[in-house]
Each structure stands twice: as structure tokens, then as C-alpha cells.
Design goal:
Length: 476
């Protein structure tokens, strides 16, 4: 069976991490050609991999590009309205050709992509040339339509509270209550073991770094559905330091990571999505590309699906970061080292260690992401995305998977897994649940952070879906 180029690229993207994607494409003589929406999604994911933006900023970037594409497309639909200009750009029926739609979308997506990733302009220009367009010559009516639609979106997003024009720098004056922990050394002291603590470690480039809390202002970013912060505020508080629940959640991570199977380790690493990856929001955009190929989408279907999906993950980032900032909760590495210092405990790799030196099952060059534990971003992003893909496709069937090669672990190179491992997700729900569970296997999140993140994500995804559907149904 011929392999769709978008899925071949997907396979290559994960091959570097020892994972080969099993395409979810039905048997057919020739796969459907990738739409221009998928082409721009691929280009943006490539920029994301070479960039340095964290998950909530990546989610927003995907939303901005796909909203610009949607708003440009809406001008050529008889019913849909744009998110910023409503139906004011609507073109007459005679102009509603596939070529005009595609051209308007490309000019809009190019403008947004360059705005978000200016250092990658050459690659975006190259895609425009490949598609037969000159970004320096926006003289055609479709080009002007796409640029007008996207300019309105960018004007809105430049003032959405993200501080994009200021490099996404914090605008709230956040400061951690705890001094940094040096990961390579035993924990000496921590002022508040229930609160977030910065980590000092050596990164992939060999530099000693102490990353600050990523985007503590993100909960204030303007939500697509208008409900992200309200839904976040309904999430119950996490376990507090000094309580039995706090000790129990740490004990669960200690005992669980001590007996990890090869399959659990593979799950932890496959879903890690750390630096130089698509990050969790981009991961689900890759899955959406599989859905597009599987279901043989045309342009209209892809515009709608990616628009709803990208805005759901943007809102998931806003909601989960609102909860993270509200509770400023400790990661397992802080809680476990505090609770188990001076005690001999079993840990992954068959070792017995002093609890003060415990580390999660993660690459040492990125031991724990630099932001609070509760709730899990992976869980929230994934549940929101799965909710939208279920709604859009009319069912939960997915059929995706990944093959993890023997010995391909970056945590235990050459050792794990001891045999080839195949991960399969018959449904979107199973993929999302595994993404959340992976962070518990990896020692990054507690059970409540995962499960409450999933619940929050489903609510966020539902709200974003309703809003997106209202736009393309003409209700705005």
C-alpha cells in the first residue's frame, strides 16, 4: 500500500526517538493528496521542532495559524463566518473555487507563520513557491482576502495577554517560594515541599541551566471559547503538604517507578514530547494528519478539523496553566526527595538509593518540565484534542500506534526496552488516557494531576468544539 507523504514524514519525525508510527490509513489504491491545510500544518510543526517555545505557546501558535486559515476559507463559504470579521469578507458564488480557497488560505497561513516564527521565514517562503504563490506579490483577490482575514486575527492575538511581542515574558512578577534544587546533589532543604521548585541541571548542550517557571501569566490569555478560565476555576485543589493524601501520592510514584515494565518505560518516553519535539499540542496535530489521510479529507473538512483542534489545545494550555499558577504545586521530584531523604528506597533500573537522590524516569538533560505539577498539561491537551477529534469524526475510532525499537531508550540506552514494543490506540480516548498515564510512569505527575487534567481537558475540548461549530455554521 502506498504511504501518504504526510504519514511518511510523521514516521520520520518519531524515528529519531526510537518510535515508528503505525499509520492509521485504510487500504486503498492511492491515498488522497494532502490538502494545503495539512501542508501548512506540516510546515508549522517543522518550525516548532527547531524553535524553543513551550507547550502553551506552541498550542497558541497552532491556533493562530489555523484560525487565519479558517477565516480566509470562511470568505469563500456561503454560510461560515470568520472569527474577527464575521461575513464581511464573503466572496460571491462565482469566486468560490477550490483554487481561490487554497490561495487565500496559503497567504493567510504564511502571514501568521512568519509572524510567529520569523526565523523560519525561508522555509515558509519555499512552501509558498512550491504551491505556486509569491508572498511578495499579494495582488490577487484571494491573496488580499487571506491577508485581510489573517491581519485581523493577528491584531487580536497581539493583544491577547500572551505577550508575544515581548517574547512571551511573564507579566505578573511571579517568583518561586523555593530556592532551586541541584538535581545532581541530594536535597539539602526546601522552604515549602508542597510548592513548585526550580531545578538546576545540565541540558543537552552541556550547559548548567535553571529554567524559570514557564509562562506563569498564561492563564490570562484570551480563550477561544471564552470559558477556559471558568472551567479551570472549577478544578478542585490538589493534596496539601503534611496531609496523608500528599504522602500517599508520593508513595504511589515511588513504588510505581520502582517496578516499571519495558512497556511502561516505552510509554513514558514515547509521550515525553520534550525539547526539539512537536510538544503535546503538536503531537495531536500529527494525529490529525493521520485522520485527514485515513478519512480522505478535502480542503473544507481539513480547515474545520484543524481549526477546532488547534483552538481546543490552545484553550487547554490556558486552562491548565491557570490551575498550575493558582496552586503552584510541587513536582514529584521535590516531594519525594523531601519525604524520603535519608531512607533507602527502590527505584527504576533495579537500584536502591537514598530517597534524597530520587529522579524521575526521564532523560537527565530534561528531568522535569519547568512549571507546577497540578494539573498535567499532557492530560489536558490530549483530552481536549481527543474530544474534538471524536466530535469531528462522529466516533472514537482512531487506529493509531507506534513501534518502539528494542534498546532505543534515551533514559537507558541499549537496555530498554529489552524487546520491540508496539503501542496501539484503537480509540482517541485510549491515546489521550495513555498520554496522561505516561507522565505518572515517568514520575512527572501524580495521579490527581493526571485525572483532573483529563477531566478539565474534556470540558475544554467540548467548549471549543461548540464554539468552532458555531462559526462554521454561521452563528459566530
Amino acid at each position: 500500500m502506498p504511504v501518504n507523504p504526510s504519514l511518511r514524514a510523521l514516521t520520520v519525525a518519531f524515528a529519531a526517538a526510537g518510535a515508528l508510527v503505525v499509520p492509521a490509513v485504510p487500504a486503498q489504491s492511492e491515498p488522497a493528496a494532502r490538502t494545503v491545510v495539512v501542508r501548512w500544518n506540516e510546515a508549522l510543526l517543522s518550525a516548532i521542532r527547531t524553535g524553543t517555545l513551550g507547550p502553551p505557546m506552541v498550542a497558541r501558535a497552532l491556533a493562530v495559524v489555523h484560525t487565519c486559515a479558517y477565516d480566509a476559507w470562511a470568505a469563500y463559504d456561503p454560510v461560515a463566518v470568520g472569527t474577527r470579521l464575521g461575513g464581511s469578507l464573503r466572496r460571491p458564488e462565482a469566486e468560490r473555487t477550490e483554487a481561490n480557497k487554497a490561495e487565500a488560505i496559503s497567504y493567510a497561513a504564511h502571514l501568521a507563520a512568519v509572524d510567529l516564527y520569523p526565523a523560519q521565514r525561508a522555509s515558509f517562503d519555499a512552501l509558498m513557491a512550491e504551491l505556486g504563490h509569491d508572498p511578495a506579490d499579494p495582488s490577487s483577490l484571494p491573496a488580499r482576502t487571506g491577508l485581510a482575514a489573517c491581519t485581523a486575527v493577528l491584531d487580536h492575538r497581539h493583544a491577547d495577554g500572551s505577550n508575544q511581542l515581548g517574547g512571551y515574558a511573564d507579566t505578573t512578577g511571579y517568583a518561586p517560594v523555593n530556592a532551586p534544587m541541584v538535581v545532581a546533589d541530594p536535597l539539602a532543604s526546601v522552604d515549602d515541599p508542597g510548592r513548585w521548585q526550580p531545578l538546576t541541571y545540565r541540558n543537552k548542550a552541556g550547559a548548567v541551566v535553571t529554567p524559570p517557571f514557564l509562562a506563569p501569566h498564561w492563564g490570562a490569555v484570551t480563550s477561544f471559547s471564552g470559558r477556559a478560565r471558568d472551567l479551570a476555576d472549577r478544578v478542585p485543589a490538589p493534596a496539601q503538604d503534611g496531609t496523608p493524601a500528599f504522602r500517599a501520592q508520593a508513595a504511589e510514584i515511588v513504588s510505581g517507578t520502582a517496578v516499571l515494565t519495558d512497556r511502561q518505560k516505552a510509554i513514558a518516553e514515547y509521550w515525553a514530547d520534550g525539547p526539539s519535539s512537536e510538544t503535546p499540542p503538536g503531537h495531536w496535530s500529527l494525529f490529525a494528519q493521520q485522520v485527514s489521510a485515513r478519512d480522505r479529507h478535502g480542503l473544507d473538512a481539513d480547515v474545520k478539523m484543524f481549526f477546532a483542534l488547534a483552538n481546543s489545545v490552545m484553550d487547554a494550555g490556558i486552562a491548565s496553566w491557570e490551575v498550575k499558577r493558582d496552586h503552584d504545586s510541587a513536582r514529584p521530584i521535590t516531594a519525594i526527595r523531601f519525604l524520603y531523604q535519608g531512607r533507602q528506597i527502590r527505584t527504576w533500573g533495579g537500584r536502591t538509593i537514598d530517597g534524597a537522590t530520587w529522579v524521575p524516569y526521564q532523560v537527565p538533560t530534561f528531568p522535569t518540565p519547568p512549571f507546577a505539577e497540578y494539573v498535567s498539561g499532557h492530560s489536558t491537551f490530549s483530552a481536549a484534542a481527543a474530544e474534538v477529534l471524536r466530535r469531528f469524526t462522529g466516533g472514537d475510532a482512531f487506529g493509531g500506534g507506534a513501534a518502539i525499537a528494542k534498546g532505543s531508550s534515551q533514559v537507558e540506552p541499549g537496555v530498554s526496552p529489552a524487546y520491540d514494543v508496539t503501542l496501539r490506540w484503537p480509540t482517541f480516548t485510549e491515546a489521550a488516557d495513555q498520554a496522561g498515564l505516561s507522565r505518572r510512569y515517568g514520575g512527572i505527575h501524580f495521579r490527581a494531576g493526571d485525572l483532573q487534567g483529563r477531566s478539565l481537558g474534556r470540558a475544554v475540548g467540548s467548549a471549543a468544539w461548540d464554539r468552532a461549530k458555531a462559526y462554521w455554521s454561521g452563528r459566530g
